[in-house]
Design brief:
The complex is a heterodimer of chains A (136) and B (139). With 136 residues, chain A is mainly α. Chain A contains six helices and three strands, in the order αβααββααα. Chain A has a domain at 5-85 and 122-128: Winged helix-like DNA-binding domain superfamily/Winged helix DNA-binding domain (Arc Repressor Mutant, subunit A, Orthogonal Bundle), CATH 1.10.10. The model of chain A has no long low-confidence stretch (mean pLDDT 87). Chain B has four helices and five strands; from the N terminus they run βααβββαβα. In chain B, β4, α3 (86-100) and β5 (106-108) form a beta-alpha-beta unit. The chains are: A mainly alpha (136), B alpha+beta (139).
């Protein structure tokens, strides 16, 4: 699965801020951590802020903090802010042919599995899981 | 904190009723078969003696060409008793029983549209396993 850069940055930022909801980090600090431009990250944080997952940030030095619910928010919730909805895409040329239709069914199967995976992993699971995930 | 203990024949009506409420399908024979000695069938009992949830599983060796693994066949918690960690307690207890038998992997199958139960197993540290389930409509 290929995620757009904004989606990946959205996931990085929300997970980093959700690690410690008491802590504030500026878009410049987050940008430096992920090696991207502060301008690019500010736009991503704006989207996360409008959706209610983070709050704050006045200018490049203003701090952001996590204001969502770690247990209730899944990776899919964040991905959906940046990626087009699976049903909302435009029709591809050739989709009405039998080969095009068969190919569409394969791609749909992949999308369904990807969505099930992203929907099943909460921020809490990512940050606290007993197994493979993030450790501070 | 509930008590986790092996299921007994006397628990079957409560188990069957809880499952039927949640799935809409009555399958008393299926649950009675889970009492077989090679199955692991546990209930969570409240301090008032009621069955608040259950978990059922079995160790299968060389199933689908895979080495021994403990399979979770079913898990259910009374909706009134959720958000108290009962399902995690049941899962941990089943895993302990599998481990006591020398098994080091636990597996299950979940409907990919059932995000609630998928999220539960993810929160227990489970990830996608090495097998893909395939299916064909032969009607």
């Amino acid at each position: 699965m290929k995620l757009q850069t904004a989606t990946r940055l959205g996931l990085y930022a929300v997970l980093e801020l959700a690690r410690d909801p008491e802590r504030t980090l500026s878009s410049a600090e987050l940008a430096e951590q992920f090696g991207v431009s502060s301008h690019h990250l500010a736009k991503v944080l704006g989207t996360l802020s409008t959706a209610g997952y983070v709050r704050g940030g006045r200018g490049a030095t203003g701090g952001y903090r996590f204001t969502g619910n770690r247990r209730r928010t899944t990776l899919m919730d964040i991905v959906a802010l940046f990626e087009p909805a699976p049903g909302g895409r435009a029709k591809e040329p050739g989709e009405d042919t039998d080969i095009g239709g068969a190919l569409q069914r394969v791609l749909l199967e992949i999308d369904e599995i990807a969505e099930a995976t992203l929907r099943s992993i909460s921020l809490e699971t990512m940050l606290k899981s007993k197994g493979s995930s993030l450790k501070r | 904190m509930a008590t986790i203990r092996p299921a007994q024949a006397a628990d079957l009506p409560a188990i069957s009723a809880l499952d039927e409420r949640e799935t809409g399908v009555a399958k008393p024979d299926y649950w009675r078969d889970m009492l077989a000695p090679d199955r692991h069938f546990l209930v969570a009992e409240t301090d008032k003696g009621a069955v608040a949830g259950f978990i059922a599983g079995e160790i299968r060796v060389f199933e689908f060409g895979q080495p021994a693994a403990g399979w979770v066949y079913a898990i259910q918690v009374d909706p009134q008793q959720r958000q108290r960690g009962l399902a995690s307690q049941l899962f941990d207890a089943l895993v302990e029983r599998f481990k006591a038998k020398g098994v080091t992997r636990v597996r299950t199958l979940v409907d990919r549209k059932d995000h609630l139960i998928l999220s539960f197993f993810r929160a227990q540290g489970m990830v996608a396993g090495p097998s893909l389930q395939l299916d064909k409509d032969v009607s």
